[in-house]
Each structure stands twice: as structure tokens, then as C-alpha cells.
Specification:
The complex is a heterodimer.
Chain A lengths: L2 H5 L8 H29 L5 H28 L30 H23 L5 H24 L3 H5 L7 H19 L15 H20 L7 H29 L4 H15 L8 H25 L8 H19 L13 H33 L6 H6 L1 H6 L9
Chain B lengths: L1 E7 L4 H10 L6 E7 L6 E5 L2 E5 L2 E10 L4 H12 L7 E7 L17
Helix pairs in contact in B: 1-2
Classes of the chains: A mainly alpha, B alpha+beta.
Chain lengths: 417, 112
């Protein structure tokens, strides 16, 4: 993202290799939401709510896509405002077919589409907080308002040339923009919405751990597009980002497995793939700056810290962030953002920071704290407003019956026949 | 005639079927059921949190037999289904009022 300012003004032409890679990466990032995240979350809920999670993922993806076209992209990536972009690209009327995206060698259309897939997955991540009890209309309202009020400004601050970009914050692929925003907002929504009727005493376990694994594995593959695509070129940065992403995920999976094995005597599948996601979220901001050694260290730290965070949210704070969006995504994204200044120089393969290590850490911390505070405050207001417009929760009876039938008139599983 | 209804551990099914076949039992019906007795369920751990599973998966085996053969069959099921651990199941024996073979219309013991 930072090459943008440096290269602005230089004459560039559309480069076939870069364009081909970014189009591929775009496909991979969309796959992360549809169907990867849908399956990951779908397997974690009860059988009576599987379809509601899949519908929510589909709907949020489409709402975010259309809003990105209307004004989301423009307010994120146009203009030089410190706080928000301008309206010069509303309805994507800012350039013709052959227009190049400034600072890259790819067409504007590909850049818009690549970034759209990030705008799609970020509100979809929050679904994990409110599953099994939210009203479907509230999902649509919250997602739409959240995209424009939280995601768009924050993405502008960090990636669109806003105040955090000017301060030199490093967030290669979205530790702050995607994971801190989604994680903190998830906690606020879960807290505002109140817990599921059975929480915490007798919540049912995941109905299909195999589906959780399929979803997590597809997320892992899609994450190569997310992180290596964020180099915005088919180059050495993209290659190293792919390598560090994979090593962090593999290490985190093993460490989470080891923690469970030592704590409970058995390593579980759900635990292992939760470690995978923690490792992926944690490497996301750092994928462009650490080398292989730093990635392994970050992966190990991811599972140790996120495992603890899940426990703190569920058992200490007793907030029903049902599928651990804050514990795994939010904390992972913040951890990677804060740790990257110290790990960039570990071994070979890393990339230079914008400031000396100490200063860089302070800038990173400023970014995490400012974005967390904005996400929390704005999401609280969005949730309250949505509650006044359409109501937040389904009736207790509907919740017990399951959202599949009560909200969507369908049933996920029919026995026999 | 009697109907034997046996609740067993799912992993003992093959052994029970072999034992019944060995004493000449020709047919049986199996269903997947859930339940608990003194075992009172178990706990599973996901992401470090314990979940109580009250109803455990079991198999329900139904066998209809002439009264004279019930003792042997119950003994065979007991021997094959027992692991000695809590949760091995129960065997109920019920009087069977009538039996009808759908294909031929035969009634009574000849329909078994």
C-alpha cells in the first residue's frame, strides 16, 4: 500500500503478470467469504441454525459489494483527506476501461474489485458474534451501516492515504483494517445483543466439526490471495508474504493442538483449525515485513495469546461472542500489528520499517488503539440505532426452534428419505 | 412370541449381530438412538470450553423370536455387548401379541 505514494506520478503501463496475479488473488479472497467463512461458521453452530449462517454470509457479501460500488470505494480510496476520502469515484464513475490504478501496474477495475473482496469479508467476520439469535433484518442494517461508518473510514486512514498512513503505520493486509475492526465490533454487538438463551450454562457444541475444518482449510488457501495479493504486484514481496502466511498458519495450528493436548489429554480438530485461523489473522498485518523466522515466532505467539483471549472473553468477561471473533481475529490482528516492528529484523527475508523499532511500535499501538476505540463507539451506536429501527433479536421461541425455520422457512437437515 | 429390545453401545453392533447369527437368529432391526442411564452423558471440549452432552449415541436393536429361544438370544446379546464399563446398555423383553408377514399374509410364529 505504501508504494502508492512513492510511485505516484511515474508513468506506468498495465502489466500482464501483475494483473493476472491480482485477478487470481481477488478470486481467492472472495472464496474466503463464499463459501469458506460460511462453512467455518456454519459448522460451529447448532444444526438448527446452519442455514441462517450461510444466508447471512451470502447477504452480507452482496450488501457490501453494492455499497462498495455506490460510495464505499470512493470514500476509502479517493482524495487526500486525513479522515475520509472524497466523492470523486461514486458509482465508480471515475475513469474509463483502460485507467491504471495510481502507483501500481494494474487496471483500476482490478484494484476496485480486489479491495471489494476485503470490504466483503470484514463485515462477514462479525457474523460469528451474533449467530443463533439475531434478526435477519438487523444483520442487513448493521452490516450496511458498519461498512460505511467503521470499515470505510478506517481503511482510508490506513490504506487510503489518511492520518494513520501519513503517520507511517504498517498494516500490510489488514490486521488493523480487517481484524481489529471486526473483532472489537463483534464484542460490542455480542454484548449489546445479550447472550443466547443457553449461554453460558448449556450452550450446544459445534454441530459439524468436519465442516469447520473444510471452511478453515479454504480460508487458509484464500488467505494467500489476501496477503500475497496485498503486495499489489507479482513480485518478491508477494512471494515472501505467501511463505510467511503459510508458516505462521502451520505453526499456530501445531501450537494450539499442543495446548489442548497438554490441558485436556486430547488434541481436537476444532482446536487445531482455530489455531490455523489465529495464525493467519496474526500474520496478516506483518506478512509484508517479516521473514520466515519471524513468521514462525508470530504463529506460535498467535495460538498462545488467542487461546487465552478466547477464555477471557467467554469465561471472565462472560460475553457471548459466540464464535470467538474478538478472541481469534481481533486479538490476532492486534498481536501481529504490535509485534511486527520487533520481528521484521529477525533472520533474513524481512523488509524495512518506516521508523526505528521503538517509534514504529508506538505508531502501531496508536493505530490499534485509535481503531479499536472508533470501532467500539461507532458499532455501539449502529447497533442501538438498528435496534430502534427493526429490533435486534428474534423471539425466545424462535431462537429455541432455530433460525433456519423461524427466519428463513427452511431446514438444513432432513432425516432419512 | 417375544420382542427383545436391546440398547447397546454402537461399537458392539458387529459382535452382537455375529452372536445372534451364530445361534440362528435370521432378522433384526437397528436404529440410531440417543439416551442416558446411570452414565449421565459425558463432556466434550471445544476451544477450551466444556460442553455437557446429556444424550449419548446408542443403538436400539429389535429382535422378534419364539418364546423358547428368547433366553439364548438374550444371553448371546449380553455376552457380545458387554465391555464391563458403565454405559453398556439394557435389554428389555416384551410380550409380542401378533406378527404378520407383509408379502404372504402369514400370521403368528410362521411369520417370524
Amino acid at each position: 500500500m505504501t508504494a502508492k505514494q512513492a510511485n505516484q506520478g511515474a508513468t506506468t503501463v498495465i502489466n500482464g503478470s501483475d494483473t493476472a496475479w491480482l485477478m487470481t488473488a481477488t478470486v481467492l479472497v472472495l472464496l474466503m467469504t463464499l463459501p469458506a467463512l460460511a462453512l467455518f461458521y456454519g459448522g460451529l453452530v447448532q444444526a438448527k441454525n446452519i442455514l441462517s449462517v450461510l444466508v447471512q454470509c451470502c447477504a452480507v457479501a452482496c450488501v457490501a459489494s453494492v455499497l462498495w460500488f455506490v460510495c464505499g470505494y470512493s470514500l476509502t480510496y479517493s482524495g487526500n483527506g486525513a479522515w475520509l476520502g472524497d466523492l470523486s469515484a461514486v458509482f465508480l464513475q471515475n475513469g474509463n476501461r483502460t485507467m491504471l490504478h495510481a502507483g501500481t501496474n494494474i487496471p483500476e477495475s482490478v484494484f476496485v474489485m480486489f479491495q471489494m473482496t476485503f470490504a466483503v469479508i470484514t463485515p462477514a467476520l462479525i457474523i460469528g458474534a451474533y449467530v443463533e439469535r439475531i434478526r435477519f433484518s438487523a444483520v442487513l442494517w448493521i452490516s450496511a451501516l458498519w461498512l460505511l461508518i467503521v470499515y470505510v473510514p478506517v481503511a482510508h486512514w490506513v490504506w487510503g492515504g489518511g492520518w494513520l498512513a501519513k503517520a507511517g503505520v504498517i498494516d500490510f493486509a489488514g490486521g488493523i483494517v480487517v481484524h481489529v475492526t471486526a473483532g472489537v465490533s463483534a464484542l460490542v454487538i455480542a454484548w449489546t445483543l445479550k447472550p443466547r438463551v443457553d449461554f453460558p450454562k448449556s450452550v450446544r457444541p459445534p454441530h459439524a466439526p468436519w465442516m469447520v475444518m473444510v471452511g478453515a482449510s479454504l480460508l487458509w488457501v484464500g488467505w494467500f490471495g489476501f496477503n500475497a495479493g496485498s503486495a499489489l504486484a507479482a513480485n518478491a514481496d508477494a512471494g515472501m508474504a505467501m511463505l510467511t502466511t503459510h508458516l505462521s498458519a502451520a505453526t499456530a495450528t501445531l501450537v494450539w493442538m499442543a495446548i489442548e493436548w497438554m490441558s485436556f489429554g486430547k488434541p481436537s480438530l476444532v482446536g487445531a483449525v482455530t489455531g490455523t485461523i489465529a495464525g493467519l489473522a496474526t500474520i496478516t498485518p506483518a506478512a509484508g515485513n517479516v521473514g520466515p523466522l519471524g513468521a514462525v515466532v508470530l504463529g506460535a505467539a498467535a495460538s498462545l495469546v488467542c487461546y487465552g483471549a478466547v477464555h477471557v472473553v467467554k469465561r471472565v468477561m462472560v460475553v457471548d461472542d459466540a464464535l470467538d471473533v474478538l478472541g481469534v481475529h481481533g486479538v490476532g490482528g492486534a498481536l501481529g500489528t504490535l509485534a511486527l516492528p520487533f520481528l521484521a529484523g529477525l533472520g533474513v527475508g524481512g523488509a524495512a520499517l518506516h521508523h526505528p523499532v521503538g517509534t514504529q511500535f508506538l505508531v502501531q499501538a496508536e493505530g490499534v488503539v485509535a481503531v479499536a476505540v472508533w470501532s467500539a463507539v461507532a458499532t455501539f451506536v449502529i447497533t442501538k440505532v438498528t435496534g430502534m429501527i427493526v429490533g435486534l433479536r428474534v423471539d425466545r421461541d424462535h431462537e429455541i426452534q432455530g433460525l433456519d425455520f423461524s427466519s428463513h422457512g427452511e431446514t438444513g437437515y432432513h432425516s432419512g428419505r | 412370541m417375544k420382542l427383545i429390545v436391546a440398547i447397546i453401545q454402537p461399537h458392539r453392533l458387529d459382535a452382537v449381530r455375529e452372536a445372534l447369527t451364530a445361534i440362528g437368529v435370521e432378522g433384526m432391526t437397528v436404529s440410531e438412538v440417543r439416551g442416558y442411564g446411570r452414565q449421565k452423558g459425558h463432556t466434550e471440549i471445544y476451544r477450551g470450553a466444556e460442553y455437557t452432552i446429556a444424550f449419548l449415541p446408542k443403538l436400539k436393536l429389535e429382535v422378534a423370536l419364539p418364546s423358547a429361544r428368547v433366553e439364548d438370544a438374550v444371553a448371546a446379546i449380553t455376552k457380545a455387548a458387554r465391555t464391563g464399563k458403565i454405559g453398556d446398555g439394557k435389554i428389555f423383553t416384551l410380550d409380542l401379541e401378533s406378527v404378520l408377514r407383509v408379502r404372504t399374509g402369514e400370521i403368528g410364529e410362521s411369520a417370524l
